[in-house]
User: What shape does this take?
Amino acid sequence: MQSFVQVQALKQSFPSPSGEGDLVVFDDINFEIAKGDFVCIIGHSGCGKTTILNVLAGLEAATGGNAFIDGREISGPSLDRGVVFQAHALMPWMTVHANIAFAVRSKWPDWSRAQVDQHVQQFIDMVHLQGSENKKPSQLSGGMKQRVGIARAFAIQPKMLLLDEPFGALDALTRGNIQDELVTIVRQTKQTVFMITHDVDEAILLSDKIFLMSNGPRAKLAEIVTNPLPRDRTRATMHHDPKFYEVRNDLIDFLVHRSKTFAAA
Amino acid sequence: MLKSEKLRALILSLLLFGVFLAAWQIGTMPATGTQTVDDEYAKLVGAAASSGQKSAFPTPTDVGRKLVEQLSDPFYDKGPNDKGIGIQLAWSVGRVGLGFGLAALVAVPLGFLIGMSRLVFQALDPFIQVLKPISPLAWMPLALFTLKDSGVSAIFVIFICSIWPMLINTAFGVASVRKEWIDVSRTLEVKPLRKALLVILPAAAPTIMTGMRISIGIAWLVIVAAEMLVGGTGIGYFVWNEWNNLSIANILVAVFLIGVIGMLLDMCFARLQKAVTYRD
Assistant: This one.
């Protein structure tokens, strides 16, 4: 059976500024994502994680290789793939409600005002932002803005969600709260998710599979780790699971040592 | 504290104005004896002023009196050369409104096009750069010759001079819309028209509004100059007419009111600008 997402021999390169040969960011990237899976990709800066995400989102085209979703080649952005950007990317002149409604109306342009409002409210409630519907982004904290970005991406009920380090700019406390919310939401909606993160604990909490990228240039998808922890893990208790530190140490060892040596090997 | 700061600024302003009025009063007190003046100046101002016997320049009280006189009956109409200052100002503001409005109708869509297409920008840029610095007074003869109507010529000159800041600012604002917002629109498959109206326009609005604010200032400057040349009605014509009558006091009243109207126009646009500004 064909996987939901298939990436084959993906390569990204730029003409070198000095003119001699290409600068290859990554090449020979192959992976598959099954429907309903939550995948985190981890790697040092410069290995091309955001590029891979942009290719899956259809925002960028890779220099070489193919990417398929649901059997069809990815040729551009689509409402089927919701994106949560690194820096929330909310429209500052629109209220929280209007930002999400903008997305909802893009997907369902024939809906009545009441339908749109009801749908938007559902997702505002989902991210616990009741009471902030009429605030502008400049009146919100970083965590709240990111929540709006998440609500907006979820509101269009896409087949796949792409999150580019969505919690990178948040403090640890806020991050923890939103991670818990995300776990709950994703378990309910059972969406396929591809997320970039630098936080190893976050990856262990959220994902079913963890993709490990070696260092760039010429970065590769070095390892795919299957999360050994049970699906009902929570942030508060998962570190008591015996397998937690095993997988955590493995990931950190990769980031500290193996990501560098992978190319040499 | 802000309130005391504003109060202090007000007191300082009033003090400066007082000093200015005092200097003016002293400067315009009648002089004794005759003064010799330039031949050209003598031809321009006529016998009385050129003999320097009585200072032709009015005192503050003269001007004050004239101001009250003009404002007490601003809308009288005693024929083509004798209309109230209110009517003249209304004519000028009307012409500005028309010229500016037409300029905005052309500048915003064209600016959008230039901002969104590098090809169009590069193609039109040389024309914009050459036309932009041309003074309204240079356009006037061309306009009068081709359009023949003086009123229409004045409006055309306002149009051709006030269009540039709006055009350039709109193009810049549209081209500078943050890529993130464009990317969001792409991932939501937003159609081009909806994107232009709901994303690009609000994003560029502060810059566009700044351009409009500059343009209205230019339009008001231009109308006074244009009306001086063209005549008929309007505050520029009023100034020129009063110059021919050597009524400096009336000129000063007109100059003061030109400044006030210009300030009011700017305040309107400043408010509009504030309305579309967003905190990023």
Notes: Helices of chain A lie at 49-57, 96-107, 113-126, 142-155, 172-189, 200-206, 242-261. Chain A touches chain B through 24 residues (CB under 8 Å). The CA atoms of residues 55 and 247 of chain A lie 29 Å apart.
